[in-house]
Amino acid sequence: MVEILDSTLREGEQTPGVTFSVDEKLTIASLLDEFGVDVIEAGHPRVSKDIFRGVKEISNQGYKAEILAHCRAMKEDIDVARSCDVDWVGIFFCVSNRRLEQQFRSKLDEAINLITDAIEYAKDQGLQVRYTPEDTVRTEYTSLIKVSKAAIEAGADRISIADTVGAMIPIKMYDLVKKLKSDLKVKLNVHCHNDLGLATANSLAAYDAGVTMIDVSVNGMGERVGITSLSELCLALYCIYETKNNWKLGMLPELSQKVSEFSGMNISPNTPIVGKNAFLHNAGLHVAAVINNPKHYEAFPAELVGRKRNFVLDKMAGIQTIKQKLEQMEIAVCDDNVTKIMHHAKSKEKGNVSDSEIIGILNNSEIQMPVFQ
Ligand code: HCA
Ligand code: CU
């Protein structure tokens, strides 16, 4: 069974312009736990006092989910994470040539020593360890294998494959994970950024190739344009892969709304699953088919994710759209009324036909009727 790690409170709080209070974090964490994520990445406790407090309070709520703190490969970071009572530390350290030469001015072997010392230290403290060679997908493969093998030897429980800049495509991700899986005897995670809009697709490709844990965040929040979205990933896994997780999918709109409210970031109407338009049908042919059977134009039913389907009335409308609208408004569905509304809708170049327009048209018999062939 696939495991989900939600990083809304760590990666998500790295979204430009977004901060969460400790209370907001506790609300989000409770919802995530109830939804059924396996791990909550609660923050990097050495970043600030309130992040420390948030991680510690979340760790002590007795959630079903395990709690992970983000750490550099430093004993001081691990000590602080330990004092927050977390189950896991996620240690990240990039070993690509570019970073080793330019940023840290150190060599691969020196970096590996720092990484393995930190992992051994964390294991001695009774912590579970995820090691991420940051920017995994752009790191030279030999360095990747060398550092990962050393990390596993030092006790790392998981290695995470990070597409830190969102530069992957699904087929390359699949090949990389397959290769790593045959070269490393350890459980693999994946963490995909969305810079090319491919985060969910790349995460699924990694799952196809054998990763067992996938990082997500609510509304796909994170550095720059964020990472894989919790809703998108869970729906794809549930509907297409038929995974047997016990997720409360009906909670997704609430989770999304709460995070939107706390982050001040609106959910755009065309966001899959939780956006305003996700179950809103427009063209006359679509509406007629959906009234007959929603499956004609829905990949999964609105009810599965606690939503309702609805229809838009504008110049795209067909007879069924108008009939449905009149029914909703408890107005007689007779030929005369349908024709009047239809003519009005077809003559309107821009915008929807509002309820008050419908009432106005039906009350005003003087209205000019455009003629159609
Ligand atoms: C970061 C980068 C990171 C780390 C992922 C991880 C990435 O913000 O520190 O530690 O597993 O994308 O590489 O989010
Ligand atoms: Cu990231």
Brief synopsis:
By secondary structure, the chain is an alpha/beta fold. It has helices at residues 22-35, 49-59, 75-83, 97-104, 108-124, 141-154, 170-183, 199-209, 230-239, 252-263, 284-292, 319-328, 335-346, 355-363, and strands spanning 3-6, 39-43, 66-71, 88-92, 128-132, 158-163, 187-192, 213-216, 280-281, 310-311.
Descriptive labels:
elongated; two-stranded parallel ribbon; binds copper (II) ion; 12% strand; 2 domains; 373 residues; 8-stranded parallel β-barrel; binds 3-hydroxy-3-carboxy-adipic acid; alpha/beta
| CATH H level, superfamily name of the largest domain | Aldolase class I
Biggest sheet character: 8 strands, parallel, barrel
**Which class do the helix and strand fractions yield?**
alpha/beta
CATH topology title of the largest domain: TIM Barrel
Mean pLDDT: 96
- What is the tally of helical segments? 14
User: In the CATH classification, which architecture of the largest domain applies?
Assistant: Alpha-Beta Barrel
Q: pLDDT under 50 segments (min length 5)?
A: none
CATH class of the largest domain: Alpha Beta
| Beta-strand content estimate | 5-15%
Bound small-molecule species: 3-hydroxy-3-carboxy-adipic acid, copper (II) ion
Quantity of strands, as a count: 10
Biggest sheet strand order reads 1-2-3-4-5-6-7-8
String of helices and strands: EHEHEHEHHEHEHEHEHHEHEHHH
What overall form do the CA principal axes indicate? Answer: elongated
What is the domain total for the residues? 2
Tell me roughly what share of residues is in helical segments: 40-55%
